[in-house]
Design goal:
The chain has helices spanning 104-107, 111-119, 159-162, 170-178, 180-183, 196-208; strands at residues 17-21, 27-31, 57-61, 68-73, 78-83, 89-93, 98-102. By secondary structure, the chain is of the alpha+beta class. Strands 1-2-3-4 form a 4-stranded antiparallel β-sheet. A 3-stranded antiparallel β-sheet has the order 5-6-7. Helix 2 (111-119) packs across helix 6 and helix 4 packs across helix 6 (196-208).
């Protein structure tokens, strides 16, 4: 996969690449985005959210056929990659003290689901955000939340949240994310510092991982 970028000068940061062999003999590759964030640095057709560009992606390459599959996207600076024997892939971000783990169930998701789970990384510390995986991380799963009755699980919801009738929709999710305590006083959901555009992307991702469930 060759990349030609229309840059006038050498870009010497956020340019890392890492590789490791997966247990099945395929090559796992982690590629930085070369700073193509779409805002300060633009390269039409290239960037971490562009499905046909290798930048800002982790890839799986089959050396026997040359087939390339995107396993995750939306990354910045690749610091390292480890393909574990259990099928998980560990990604180390070079500029942050952060490690991301791709579970086997995630690696089989279609591209739109992969993009959604990456966007929802901000939620994954407390919630399950991966379709096809059971359990949660201390709070109810977000898979299927759009269209689900509010306070639907056996969970210690606040009285304010339990008193809300109906189902989660785009408007309600957006309002709740913008001001959890204002929308449901006493909720254990913490306030998350997200710009409006970021909240919109999170809600869009929630809709994606709820697609077809209701």
């Amino acid at each position: 996969m060759d990349v030609c970028l229309p840059f006038e000068q050498t870009f010497n940061y956020q340019s890392g690449i890492a590789m490791d062999w997966r247990p099945d003999g395929r090559l796992a590759v982690f590629i930085s985005d070369l700073g193509t964030d779409g805002i300060k640095r633009r390269a039409p057709g290239h960037g971490p959210q562009e499905p046909d560009s290798p930048l800002g992606k982790s890839l799986t390459i089959d050396p026997a056929t040359g087939a390339v599959a995107v396993t995750s996207l939306g990354h910045r600076n690749a610091g390292g990659i480890v393909a574990a024997p259990d099928g998980r892939i560990w990604l180390k971000l070079d500029t942050l003290d952060e490690v991301r783990i791709l579970e086997p169930a995630v690696l089989e998701l279609p591209p739109d689901m992969l993009a959604a789970t990456d966007t929802l990384a901000v939620c994954s510390g407390c919630h399950q955000v991966v379709p096809g995986r059971s359990g949660h991380h201390g709070a109810p799963t977000l898979v299927g939340v759009l269209g689900r009755p509010i306070a639907a699980f056996d969970y210690a919801y606040s009285e304010a949240l339990k008193s809300v009738q109906g189902r989660w929709d785009i408007e309600r999710l957006t309002a709740f994310l913008a001001n959890p305590q204002g929308w449901a006083p006493g909720t254990s959901m913490p306030a998350i510092d997200l710009a409006r555009s970021e909240r919109e992307r999170v809600v869009e991702a929630l809709a994606t991982i709820s697609s077809g469930l209701y």
